[in-house]
Amino acid sequence: MRIHALEAFILSEERVRLASVGLGSWAHVLAEAAQRGDRIDLVNCYSRSEESRAVFRQAYGVPRASGSLDALLSDSEIEGVVVTTPNDIHEPIILECLDAGVPVFTEKPIADTLTSAASVARAVDASGVLFAVGHSARRLGGHRVMKRWIDEGRLGGVSMAECNFTTARGLSLTDDSWRFYTEKSPGGSLIQLGVHHADTLQYLLGPVQAVSGHVRRLHTPAEVPDTTMSVLEFESGALAYLGAGWASPGVYQLRLQGTEANLFYDLDLGNWSKSHLLDEASTLESRHRDGRQAIEIPHTDMFREELEEFAWAIRGQGTIEVGADEAIRALAVVEAAIESSRRRGQAIELDPLIAAARV
Fold this sequence. Notes:
Layout: H1 2-13, E1 16-21, H2 25-35, E2 40-46, H3 50-60, H4 69-73, E3 80-83, H5 90-99, E4 104-107, H6 114-127, E5 131-134, H7 141-152, E6 158-166, H8 189-205, E7 208-216, E8 227-234, E9 239-245, E10 251-258, E11 262-266, E12 283-288, E13 291-294, H9 302-314, H10 324-342, E14 348-349, H11 350-358
Parallel strand pairs: 1-2, 1-3, 3-4, 4-5, 6-9
Antiparallel strand pairs: 6-10, 7-8, 7-14, 8-9, 10-11, 11-12, 12-13
């Protein structure tokens, strides 16, 4: 018993060895986040581009790179992979990793369609392999405060939420980007940005029952929409407005309105990729009948935290907050809004949509 206990202790003290799959800009954001802590070592990486592999290795001191996914998965040292490929190839990459028995952390959304997401969920269930999705925004300091206030009853009964996530990215999209195409990025700004709020709102207020949406392409040269508005109906009866756009300077806000108080959160979007700096210039304010008050935002580092949670879970020392089920419900909000827009705003129920995808 003493030997087993000692081995377990030594294992718990060692860094968890991860590999990066897909080496675009977001792989660099997550690599920097992992290296802000002392829990993770990046030991391998894979991209189809030899140049990308060389740049990534040099930037983060990764000891080796693989020329194929098969080669990477045959590396006996890696304990898990971090997938940051384009959305439309999440499914085949995740399935191959799960089939090899390798734990997977994938950047949000879980996939580009609910059908693909359901395929991933089935594979996760069948394999029993650890799986996590990077819906990081719920980890922001302001959102953690909001959750605590709701749970403690300090807001009273929440009846309404309003949120928006907008950047100007759609104005500069070109046809060499996968985000340019509807087939690869359905919903445009909604699946890339709005899906964050779709997860966070359900973290705060519970499951969404139905969505009414309007999706428009107004200013972007790309195929995808750059202006979206959705109304979410929650099982609790609460309502939320969710806006997501790609055609104006950056906005990230979430507001909750309750019978006892309101909370207004305005994020410093300029530091989105450097999540350890986000809280410094962000604001959270409570509003009561007798006035308003600034609320201190606890310091968080959402990208580092989600990766370290994954690492702890690999070692059996923690659990995953966002898995396949939570990610599917966030993606279902996106698909429901797109389908609703096709039907001129008709409300689309989420559960039948998810059930059809699972079949």
